[in-house]
Design goal:
This protein has about 140 residues and is mostly beta strands. It has 2 domains: about 55 residues; about 60 residues, Elongation Factor Tu (Ef-tu), domain 3. The protein contains no helices and 12 strands. The strands form 4 sheets. Strands 6-7-11-10 form a 4-stranded antiparallel sheet, with no helix packed on it. The mean pLDDT is about 85.
Length: about 140
């Protein structure tokens, strides 16, 4: 969004229902005094609000969370996969969800084939929880 006036302007953005799951926008704001300041704008009731500084601009990036799939192989390995369009997302794992999960980045190699990213891990006897996060 570009503001060609000297005064800040408020903008309300209607967020479409598809793709589902956009909960916030990463923003980059530039004005006469500051260049490319980053922030996060939440989506509330299918709208987001941003302020565009005088003689400035705001760029918004909305990313829907990818679907994480799991498939157990005959060799006792677990293949975790997601659409490669979710570039930037990091696979994390934790051994428990309570009292406070200790999420850590997974260090296994990610292989991309046919637009699908896959990480293969050894299926353990103890529970292990996985998620994708956008740092």
């Amino acid at each position: 969004m570009l503001n060609t006036s000297p005064d800040p302007l408020s903008a309300t953005i209607a967020v479409p229902a598809q793709p589902p799951g956009i909960a916030s926008f990463h923003t980059y704001t530039s004005g006469a005094a500051n260049y490319w300041q980053t922030s996060t704008v939440p989506v509330i009731s299918a709208t987001a609000a941003a302020t565009v500084p005088g003689y400035g601009m705001v760029t918004l990036y909305g990313v829907a969370p990818p679907l994480l799939s799991a498939r157990l192989s005959a060799t006792g390995r677990l293949a975790l996969s997601w659409g490669h369009a979710a570039v930037g997302f990091v696979l994390q794992s934790a051994s428990s969800l309570t009292p406070t999960p200790g999420w850590a980045n997974d260090t296994n190699t990610c292989v991309v084939a046919d637009a699908v990213a896959t990480v293969t891990v050894v299926a353990a006897e103890k529970p292990r929880f996985y998620r994708l996060v956008l740092p």
